[in-house]
TrEMBL record:
Its cofactor is Mg(2+). One of its GO terms (biological process) is isoprenoid biosynthetic process. Pfam families: Terpene_syn_C_2. It comes from Pityrogramma trifoliata. This is Terpene synthase.
Length: 432
């Protein structure tokens, strides 16, 4: 099967309404597509069962073999980040002029800047401010393009956002942005601000790679919107290809070099071992994001996630033995967790191979780059566990209040007790 089409039972379970077809028509279409003969009431019951499974999901410890650490200037960079967010996004409008679901105070509570201070822990202090701004901006546009209540289910509006922001990275931006939408203008003008700061003095080849990575990120997110809008779920192979760009990590990989003042040469960047390591690193990162964000995304009606894809493809597989146990969301999450472990194991193996290659290790910046890849993996897990963005909050003293799940009720999502041991007892605020 190339793709799965979800019917209204799944959307009803998520508290979402279907604006493209009646519930009965959508259920019939889904049953026809996947080759099942369940009635609409039966599918509705199944949808309620799925919602119950969502409530009871448990996230076991997430495999990662690399230690974490935070930037020594974390407190100062936090203050800078909060001030920039308040000055630029306090009056951020939502789609269609509605109140934004991503107000400045929510950005601050979610500590998005931490996603810069953790993986870029050795970044030069003077090069960190634009990276901090970029990370705050990244989560802003990510939310707008993902969230069905913003633009995540509207290809036309998403296109206008992407096309406007692309002018910044293609060096065709004019100040201020002429876009008539206040939302798009703010996104474009703030991108232009940190882009100009970041690229000052950057080597031309490095800037070209960074520009391409940002453009690929925006185009991949544009591609995900039709999947979300049509309720099609891609197969795992297609999803991996799109997700590797839509997670937005490739620009950050370039910044591992930039923040420490070195540039990998073409020979190093094209080395098969390093390319394979980068591939496994980005897959580890987006799979971690997928399992930790699944509950929130499901409640928003967003199924473009590895847990959903694994679950629904098995549930609707016409070749599935009716006598076999019914697939579960917990089983899909554990399958995704095994994928993460496989990626972690492969990264450990590849790093060991690279370190044995004396010629490759002589390349300027290679040891620092390898360390940066490991910091990205560990830092991503740490942030997902302590940030309030996905409601996990594995610590009790940092952003303990779960976020608004945009559902009819709030879900108090918590990691199980076994997960807590991977969060060190000294939380980030120890830098205060």
């Amino acid at each position: 099967m190339a793709s799965i089409i979800l019917g209204s039972s799944e959307y009803a379970a998520a508290g979402m309404s279907n604006g493209t077809a009646s519930q009965a028509d959508a259920l019939d279409a889904a049953a026809s597509h996947v080759g099942i003969a369940e009635s609409a009431p039966a599918l509705a019951v199944a949808g309620e069962s799925v919602l119950n499974d969502v409530h009871n999901l448990v996230i076991p410890p997430i495999p990662c073999s690399f230690p974490w650490r935070n930037h020594p200037d974390y407190k100062q960079l936090t203050e800078m980040s909060d001030a920039w967010v308040l000055s630029h996004f306090t009056n951020m409008p939502g789609a269609d002029g509605r109140p934004s679901s991503f107000a400045a105070e929510n950005m601050i509570k979610s500590a998005f800047h931490m996603q810069a201070t953790l993986p870029f822990a050795d970044g030069m202090s003077e090069r960190m401010p634009p990276i901090i701004k970029m990370m705050d901006w990244y989560f802003m546009i990510d939310n707008i393009l993902d969230d069905p209540s913003e633009m995540g289910a509207d290809p036309d509006r998403a296109d206008r956002v992407v096309d406007s922001v692309l002018t910044v990275f293609r060096d065709t931006y004019t100040h201020p942005s002429p876009n008539p939408s206040p939302l798009v203008r703010i996104l474009t003008d703030t991108a232009a601000e940190w882009w100009a700061e970041m690229c000052a003095g950057m080597p031309p080849k490095q800037k070209a790679r960074l520009s391409k990575a940002f453009c690929d990120y925006l185009e991949a997110n544009r591609l995900q919107v039709p999947y979300r809008n049509s309720r099609h779920l891609p197969n795992v192979e297609t999803y991996f290809k799109v997700r590797a760009d839509s997670i937005g990590w490739w620009p950050c990989a370039v910044l591992i070099e930039h923040c420490q003042g070195f540039e990998l040469d073409d020979e190093a960047l094209s080395h098969p071992l390093l390319m394979k390591l980068q591939e496994n690193t980005v897959q580890h990162i987006f799979l971690v994001n997928d399992i930790t964000s699944f509950k929130k995304e499901y409640m928003q009606g967003d199924f473009c996630n590895i847990v959903s894809i694994l679950y629904f493809r098995k549930l609707y597989d016409p070749k599935r033995d009716a006598a076999s146990p019914t697939p579960t969301l917990q089983g899909a999450l554990l399958e995704a967790l095994q994928m993460i472990k496989d990626k972690d194991d492969e990264c450990v193996r590849l790093m060991a191979e690279i370190k044995e290659d004396k010629q490759l290790m002589k390349k300027r910046g290679m040891p620092e780059y390898l360390e940066g890849l490991g910091l990205w993996m560990s830092g991503t897990i740490y942030w997902h566990l302590v940030s309030g963005r996905y409601g996990i909050c594995a610590t009790s003293d940092l952003h303990a209040t779960p976020p608004d799940m945009l559902a009819h009720h709030h879900l108090h999502i918590q990691a199980n007790k076994d997960a807590a041991h991977i969060v060190p007892s000294g939380v980030m605020m120890a830098f205060n």
